[in-house]
Amino acid sequence: MRETITALVMRKTNELHMNIVIPRVQGNLETEHVIEKTLGESTQQRYKRLANELETLQNQPKLAEQQMINLVNEMEGDQESLHEIAMFYMRRGESEAENAEKYMRDAYSFGMKN
Fold first, then answer.
1. What was the pLDDT predicted at 1?
2. Contact at 8 Å (CB) between 88 and 68?
3. Which helix (H) or strand (E) segment is 53 a member of?
4. Residue 57 DSSP code
5. Domain definitions of the chain by residue range
6. Helix, strand or coil for residue 36?
7. For residue 32, what are the contacts with CB-CB under 8 A and spacing of at least 6?
8. Of 5, 33, 85, 97, which alpha carbon lies 20 to 30 A from 61's?
9. In sequence order, which residues have a C-beta less than 8 Å from that of residue 71 and are 6 or more positions away?
10. pLDDT (tens digit, 9 = 90+) per residue, 96-111?
């Protein structure tokens, strides 16, 4: 009898989980919140860390660039994040000089001190 009840509860639990659907945006926010709470680092800090690891340790500049773009999108209009991505493009060399100039110009235009 206990095995039957346990099996019934498990089946109903699985059915319940299958019927619950949350929007993708909400799921991403929940995931970010759990990661932030578990690791103790903010989303912005994680983007910076991942970009640095991908660029320096793993030599994957395209993936590092995506993390930097995520950082800029997360911190829209933030002078420090714009400066970070400008410096990233400067390290990439002449091929990314236009992007470096664009982001550096934006970084200095958003700064009230400048």
1. 67
2. yes
3. none
4. I
5. 1-40, 42-114
6. helix
7. 43
8. 33
9. 44, 47, 48, 51, 81, 84, 85
10. 888 888 888 888 887 6
Closest CA to 88 of 105, 111, 67, 73: 67
- Whole-model pTM: value is 0.63
Question: Would you state the structure tokens that stand for residue 101, as one six-digit string?
Answer: 């100039």
State CA 80 to chain mean position distance. Answer: 16
3-state SS string for 73-99 = HHCCCCHHHHHHHHHHHHHHCHHHHHH
Q: Classify 24 as helix, strand or coil.
A: helix
| CB half-sphere exposure, 68, CA atoms < 13 A | 24
Residue 114 above 80 pLDDT? no
**Distance between alpha carbon 97 and the CA centroid of its chain, in Å?**
24
Q: What is the CATH number of domain 42-114?
A: 1.25.40
Measured CA to CA, the distance from residue 109 to residue 79 in angstroms comes to 8
Torsion sign (Cα): 47, 53, 58, 62:
positive
